Amino acid sequence: MADPESSAVFSLCVFTFVLSRALTEAAAKELTQTVIRYGGQVVEPKRDGTIPLDQVTHIISNTIDFPQYNDAAAMMLPVVKSNWVTMSLARGKQAQIRHFTPDPRMIFSDVAVSCADIPSNDKNAIVGAVMAMGGMDSDNVTRTTTHICALSLDHPKCKIAIEKRLKCKIVLPHWFDDCFKLGKRIDEKPYLLPDAEILKPDLEGPVEVPSSQHLQGATSARPDYMPIPTDSSPGARPTLTVFAGKKIMLSTDLAIRNRLLKILEELITGGGGEMTEDVEECDWFICQYRDGPQYILASHNGKTVGNLSWLYHLITHNEWTSPLRRLLHYPIPRDGIPGFKDKRITVSNYGGEARIYLENLIIAAGATFTKTMKADNTHLITARDNSEKCEAARDWNIEMVNHLWIEESYAKCEMQSLTVPKYTHFPPRTNLGEVIGQTFLDEMKVAAIYYPDGPEKPTASSKRKRKILNLVDENSFSEGPAEGVVIGRQARKEFDVMKDSDADYAEKTTEVFGVPAPAKRRATEVSTPARTRHVRGGKENETPDTSITSSSRSAKDKALHRLSDLAPDIALYEKEKKRGVNNGHWGGKRAADLIEKEHLNRRSHSSPGNAGTEEDEQTSTEKRPTKKTRPSLKEVEMRVVLTGFKRWVSDKHKEDADRKKLRDLGIQVVADGQPCDYLVAPQLVRTVKFLRNLSKGATIVSSAWIEECLDTKTVPDPKGYLLKDRDSEKKFGLNLQASVEKARKNNGKLLWGVPIYCNAGIKNGTDSYKAIAEANGAIFMVYAARSGTTIKPTSPEEDDGGRDPVYLLSTTNPEEKKLWKKFNDMAEKGNMEPRVVAPDWLLDVVMRQELRFDKKYLVSNFFN
Fold first, then answer.
1. Number of helices (H), then strands (E), in the chain
2. How many independent structural domains does the chain possess?
């Protein structure tokens, strides 16, 4: 690292820091001292929390979720992650901005790739794509290398990485290709050498359904209930800071009850916010639909407009996020998206929150969502091209696409063409549910359709809002995987002389932001970085940098051009490669027919004279002969979860055959955690499956019912097979059917808000107890030797309702007993009643579906 006395890396830079979960106050203070030491200046935010954009040259933020991000993008102010500072110091000069943008649309922003045994042309294409999407290229393998692109492990680069145990991943070039086709970064696991899954003969096997981390709190535009804040402590009211200094208006179209309205008002005012009924005074406007004079006025005046789901997300996470970041955080169109009204869409291979999200998104777009698939369905949205529904879609000529089609249609407020390759691309051994929820709403398209003309007498704020949107759109990439991304300009000495384009921009920023345009710069002055106007269809105008030579830029441009030229051929090859796996060898008449078809399609799309309208495309589709439809698969009438079923033990083939028989009868065996109608068990058992599905109110029937279905190939009434286990019911002191009825009334909220801790070293692990507790609405936390105090200390005077209990699941294991005193002290300081209980307390409470406590469950009594 350079000597601070002889180096001034940041001498022309004025920084400000945006605090977030990813950039804490302590980290920001440390970085502040560093940049000042190396010649930079730091400007603090104003009292109202806003950034003085007219004074800074760089914004250090590890997220784009801050209110002035659009303003910064309009001014081409660089927004970079905190590691840009350390990398700049390591190099002795300012690092490239592109590689350190926090914008998640730059999918390779933290990738440093080094190519091994890759042909020269392919290497140029990969490097060009990676650099265009925010990554870096390196000739040598170093500790900063994150990925090695190789065809085998025989290359010296791979051997060095293995010998030195570097943390970089050795991937096949197919990974980069698939990421670039989708415009999303997918998991590298199926592409990792030496045992890459995509090279194995069985590509159609099951793939684990991933969790949908980007959908948290954004699966519905109108949630059924308000979730519990993530950083709240049991027994303590969360202190919200996200509303501080903000005026919030709730629209009447929300149609919320007075009780919920009062709760929301208390949370907002308690967090330093203020309620208002004047749309011109508010900072945030919360409504359900994209219509009405208040919505239009709020949008024109630059107010932050979101829906109830977005408001709940702020309350839950206590951190600001743009309502445009997640599709269902913004008000929905009352009449849907044009073109979707007569569409019938179903979903396959998505699970959990992703499936709920897609269902709500399809309905919000104006289409009809169907749980089952019939011949009258128009589209199938699938995360993989391998399932019963996918086979049926091929036979019935139903359009099969991934979720990017519905997301981008909704984001751009118009139905997207199915001919776009990324909508029909399904990487092998990948479930695309892992990249769901990453699409941003297109604010320019929303503005053009839902509030286009502006008020009769435009205010200064409405003018400013419109010009910011225009500048952001002009500065962003117009197409490609990084569509919508704005990369700022470096502050460098060579920009001391203002060019014509710089003067043009300075004039615009003066009008929009009120920033005075500098007549002439001195070497020691720091002002708003200038930019060159972005030219559509041409190269991106980027700050010259000595770290990238003209030859490397030329290589990148050639590589990107080559990728676009090869795209049709790549798509054709991938399509036929899949056909070869499924349907035998490639060749003969089918190959010739397909090639001829592809050439006809290309000519029709490339010829201006042949460019038809949507009506023409629909007519040609209607004239196309359809395949003979096979008898439809019977609709799923019952979904069941099995536990303790012994018929299939150690016989996988029998299980597969029996599952198919049941499916033919309209009975689908689903995995635990999915919605089900019946829970099938041989007797009353306290397994995770049994207790979780009991908590949902599922009807519990005997295994004899499934046996009867399989043996007779009929479906007898399950009511005649309700599970009866008198011995177990007597043993546990309950009536099973009564417990089911109570569970339906409890609706999964038996333990709502009850804090339950569990010793980390408990027998059978904590995961089982967590699943059971959370299925009933409890707040579940693991308690270990190093666990900090998570119950906020309070005095009896501060509590207005007596002492609430807090539970710790434990046994008499000596290691667990050591934690009892620490737990009791923590509870007492929080003015809560500590109860160290045996795990049987939780199991019995859930089995009975009654929240009650008996001292016999205290560990000191239970194990004696």
1. 28, 24
2. 6
Task: Please report where in the chains the tokens 């998640």 appear, as a residue.
Answer: 104
∠272-278-280 over CA atoms, to 5°? 95
User: Are the C-beta atoms of residues 781 and 808 closer than 8 Å to each other?
Assistant: no
Judgement on whether residues 363 and 279 belong to the same structural domain of the protein? no
Task: Say if residue 321 is in the same domain as residue 363.
Answer: no
Alpha carbons 73 and 125: distance in angstroms, whole number = 29
Do 53 and 9 touch, CB atoms closer than 8 A?
Answer: no
Q: Whole-number mean pLDDT of the chain?
A: 80
Distance CA 235, CA 833 (A): 10
SS3 of residue 639 by DSSP: strand
Give every CB contact of residue 332 below 8 A, 6+ residues apart in sequence: 221, 288, 289, 290, 307, 364
Peptide bond into 194 cis (omega under 30): yes
Q: Is 118 helix (H, G, I), strand (E, B) or coil?
A: coil
In a domain? residue 378: yes
Average pLDDT on 426-454 reads: 90
H or E element, residue 839: helix 839-848
Residues 751-772 pLDDT 10s: 988 999 999 888 878 888 999 9
604 pLDDT above the threshold of 70: no
pLDDT in tens, 642-656: 988 888 877 778 888
Cα 647 off chain centre by: 40
Residue 117 lies in a domain: no
553 dihedral zone (left: phi>0; alpha: psi -120 to 50; beta): alpha
Long-range contacts of 714-723 (CB under 8 A, 24+ apart): 714/665, 715/637, 715/638, 715/665, 715/666, 715/667, 718/638, 718/678, 723/681, 723/683, 723/684
Look up the pTM and report it: 0.59
Model pLDDT for residues 806-845, shown as the tens digit of each residue:
999 999 888 888 889 989 988 888 888 999 999 999 999 9
Structure confidence by residue, pLDDT tens digits, 502-545: 334 334 433 444 444 333 333 333 333 333 333 333 333 333 34
83 burial (CB, 10 Å; 0-12 / 13-18 / 19+) is middle
Q: Which of 235-249, 330-344, 440-454, 604-618 has the lowest mean pLDDT?
A: 604-618
For the chain, the maximum distance between any two Cα atoms, rounded to a whole number of angstroms, is: 92
CB 87 within 8 A of CB 538: no
Domain that holds residue 727: 638-746
- Distance between CA atoms of 480 and 355, rounded to whole angstroms? 27
Indicate whether 858 belongs to any domain: yes
Q: Which helix (H) or strand (E) holds 593?
A: helix 588-606
How many residues in the chain?
A: 864
Same domain, 854 and 790: yes
Cα end-to-end distance, the chain, whole Å: 64
